[in-house]
Amino acid sequence: MREAVAGLGANPASTTERIRRAQRELVSKDLTTRGFARQHVMLTYQMLRNEESSERVEPLVSA
Question: Can you spell out the DSSP letters for 9-40?
Fold first, then answer.
């Protein structure tokens, strides 16, 4: 691990470019906190729609 960190520090310009490239990739794939929240909302809406349209299923175990 020390060698990896030392390698990053040895070439700051290259390290900065790698960081910027990684940031661009995260944003382009919508892997941000807002993207996560957007996906969560979309999945929740889909689940609620499916629940409303499906027949009621009785639980296997009664409480």
Answer: HH-HHHHHHHHHHHHHHHHHTT-SHHHHHHHH
